[in-house]
Amino acid sequence: MNILHQYWLRRKYWWPNGYRLKLFLSFLGVMILCGTGLIVLFGQIQRQTLLEETHSQGRYISSILARNLETPLFFMNRMQINANVEAILEATDLVAVFIYDKDGQRIFSHVSPQAGASAFGPDELAHYSKIMTESFPLGEEEVSIHGHQGKFLTFGKRIISAEPSSDQAAMFFDTGEPQESAATDLGSVQLVFSLAKYQRGTEQIIRHAALIFLTFLPISLFIAFLLARDVVKPLRVLVESMRIRLGKREEDEKEEEEEETTDELGQLDTSLKQLVGRLDQSFATIAQMNEGLEKEVAARTAELTRAMQELKETQAQITQTEKMAAVGQLVAGVAHEVNNTTNFVTGALPPLGKRLEELRKLLADQGKQPPDPERPERIDELMRSIDLLLGNIREGARRTSKIVSDLKNFSRPDNDLIHQIDINHCLESTLALTMPEYRSRIELVKELSPDLPMVPGSQGQLCQVFMNMIINAVHAQPDHGFLLIRTFRAEDGVHVVFADKGPGIPKNIQARIFEPFFTTKKIGTGLGLSVSFGIINKHRGTILVHSEPGQGAEFEIILPERPEPVIIEEEK
Amino acid sequence: MALLFLALAVPAWALDCVLLQSSSLKPYEEARHGFEKGWLSQHPSSGPKSISTNNVTHILLSEQLTTNNFSLKKQLQGARLVVAIGDQALEFVRDLREVVVLYLLAPSAPESLPKNFVGIEMRIQPSRQLAAINRALPKVRTIGVLYNPSKSGRWVQEALLSPVNSVQTMLFKKFDNQTSVPDALQELAGKIDAYWLLPDPQLTTPQVLGRLFEFSMRSRVPIISFSEKYLAQGAALAVTFDTADLGAQAAELGAHLARNGLNNESPSLIPPRKVRVTANTTVLKRLDVPSVLSGIDETYIPEIGR
Questions:
Q1: Average pLDDT over residues A347-375
Q2: Nearest Cβ partner for B199 among A71, A171, A175
Q3: Fewer beta carbons within 10 Å, N or C terminal of chain A?
Q4: How many domains does chain A have?
Q5: Contacts of A331 (CB under 8 A, 6+ apart)
């Protein structure tokens, strides 16, 4: 009992319910409808087929019998008539044969014992005679069919004999054409067929169809049950998973019990509605979060822009600082050079003052004292001396101005303006500034190509790079050294080569020399090559290093004639 | 209109003989071929008596338009000899008077025709037929015949006078109408060795033929018919004329008439000169009637599927 009770409690797992029950019942209904319909349809088709067959058979037998009866009826040979009729009665469902003369009088009747004793009494015989006289008018040769009380089917056929032909030729030859001889009406034959076989056949078909249907119905129901279960199973799983997804609580159990009254589709609908509600909420939350996120991204972007700007400024400051550091290294030499050029001025000023005093005095005494024949010569001599001294002063000023100009070119803050740069001029200017560094101990060889094209770029930045290269070469050779500066034009751009005969760069640090703050010098920022690399990179150029320890170093800068796109920002 | 007639008409003076054929029935065709062959043999194509081939004009009446009758008649009137094959052809030329008309295979030909008409009849003399039967079926001694005096009286008279009657015995039975045929046959049953079917329309209706063949089967009596047509239905022997030879006979007669013309002594009706015997050997074997092959000209071979 306990097991049965448990089994009953678990009925929802085996007894069709919910959507499964609906499916099962629908399938059952469709099966019964289809089965009944098919039985009716097959029954009708079979009835129709059997009826047509009976009709066809009746017509055929009527025609044959009428044909066979032509001669015996013509000669009124009853024995032969009887023999013909008997032969047909044995083989078919024919139950009665009536033969009428041309006036409609029954002259022969033969009723099969299987027709039944009362089937062809006087009334019935009168009925059949009436059929032949009323429904089978004279001249009608075709078979006519009449049903009688649903039991019998009647066929009539006129019996006609040919009259002697008037066509004499047809008597001798086959003329190939039907003889158009006159016909004599001998009478008619009436055949009555039993419909019992037809009815039996119809009933048998219906019985068989019903039997087949009833045999297959339980199998179909079982299949329907399995199908309904299999169809609903994924639906149940879906409903269950949605319940779990929706987080049904223990206190919802009561509601779930109520939900059990609806089928799985109803539950799915409810769950979907809840899910859609939650989705709407989620989308609203996401939209809000999106809005906040956009604001935050905008703020972060602004911060990043500021940081980038600061970075750029810092980079510019570093570049400038590095430049100033280089200038600082040069300042003693530059100061000495400036001093030399100033000496032209300062050295010329005392003798110039003296000569101007003497000239002033000579000119003042010219009116007061008697003419001295040597005076004009002295004045001319003084004037030539003054011109010479003024020339020295001018030269000193020019040289100072040039140094200042070179310094100015070099040390001015990089404004990133793009110009067409004469690389050779840029190199000469840088060499002038650095001359004090190398003049006394470095053998400088310049191989500057005269037909070098102008290169777009920043003059200050490129001069800074060149100075870095020259200073590094000079510093690498503390005693005496050699520096070759060569420019030439190639397919890939303008090449500037700085080659020294210093100790070279060790292999292990060649990969690091362009790193910021990397230096092998005791003094130095470690930013020179790093900044140079950045500048050449901005010009879409390349710096190549070839160095073997003990065999000097060679830096080759390649600047494209038409860098694209020019990465150096134009000042807006 | 006159121009149209002139255009349609064939120049009469160009024609010697016009062969007017009723239709393209097999016996008519055989007769035509026989005539054309015989005509050529009468008029060789080379030598001093040679003639041109177009002096026999063949016209198939069944293919002529009825509107063309007038010009056709004119054409026939211009010929030296008109040969009519079949009843229709004879009917068409019956009003011709100036031209010699030779007709054959015309069973409906009236007994009296104008003098310019000469025919080959389809009736073979009873004596010749009996002789042919005797050659083919020598064991047949008594031959039964149903006859209608109004139709076959003359023939019966001739048969009774036949000299071959010494060998064969004829048993004649009169009948008045179709319905009396079974009784008449019943009277002949057991008395005859063969039954001779005469060309009588009363005896060739389907029901009478059916009764006759049933009688033949049940009484084991072979039926000797006047036409090969009935061999297919169950007749054992057909004693008839040879259609091709009928044509050749007509050609011979026509050539004679064309050359010499008609005179008062010319017969108006000539019997066929050749008798042809065709046997249905299957029926003869079934009826157990012995036959002699030398007396049989042809054997009937049933058409498959017929």
A1: 82
A2: A171
A3: C
A4: 2
A5: none
pLDDT of residue A490: 92
What is the tens place of the pLDDT at every residue in A426-438? 898 888 888 877 8
In a shared domain, residues B233 and B206: yes
Measured between beta carbons, which residues in chain A are less than 8 angstroms from residue B27?
A: 172-173
Tell if the CB–CB gap between B207 and A162 is shorter than 8 Å: yes
- Confidence (pTM): 0.52
**Across residues A469-476, what is the average pLDDT?**
88
Residue B27 belongs to a domain: yes
DSSP codes joined into one string, B168-207: SEEEEEE-SSGGGHHHHHHHHTTT-SEEE--S-GGGSSHH
Q: Are residues B82 and B175 in the same domain?
A: no
Q: What is the pLDDT of residues A215-256, one digit of tens each?
A: 888 888 888 888 877 887 887 788 778 777 777 655 555 555
- Strand A442-448: give its sheet, edge to edge: A442-448, A481-490, A493-500, A553-559, A542-547
Say what the ipTM of the complex is: 0.81
**SS3 (DSSP) at B87:** helix
pLDDT at A495: 95
Please indicate, yes or no, whether residues B252 and B110 belong to a single structural domain of this protein.
Answer: yes
Residue A565 preceded by cis peptide, ω within 30: yes
Question: Total structural domains in chain B?
Answer: 2
Nearest CB to B207; choose among A74, A168, A174: A74
Q: Is A3 domain-assigned?
A: no
Q: How far is A174 from chain B (nearest CA, A)?
A: 6
Q: Does any domain span residue B306?
A: no
Q: Which residues on B lie below 8 Å from A172 (Cβ)?
A: 27, 107, 122, 199, 226-227, 229, 240
How much is the pLDDT for A136?
Answer: 64
Is there a single domain that holds both residue A292 and residue A390? yes
Chain B residues with CB-CB distance to A178 below 8 A:
none
Residues A466 and A560 in one domain: yes
pLDDT at B197 over 90: yes
Shared domain for A408 and A422, answered yes or no, is no
Closest among A444, A421, A409 to A541, alpha carbons compared: A421
By the 8 A CB rule, do A466 and A427 touch?
yes
Contact list in B for residue A181 (CB cut-off 8 A) is 205
Cβ pair B178:A165 closer than 8 A: no
Point out the residue among B25, B182, B204 whose CB comes nearest to the CB of A173.
Answer: B25
Full residue range of the structural domain in which residue B80 is found: 2-123+244-270
- Write out the two tokens for A178: 């039907």
Q: Which residues of A touch B206 (CB under 8 A)?
A: 70-71, 161-162
Give yes or no: residues A347 and A264 share one domain.
Answer: yes
Please give the share of chain A, as a percent, with pLDDT higher than 90.
Answer: 11
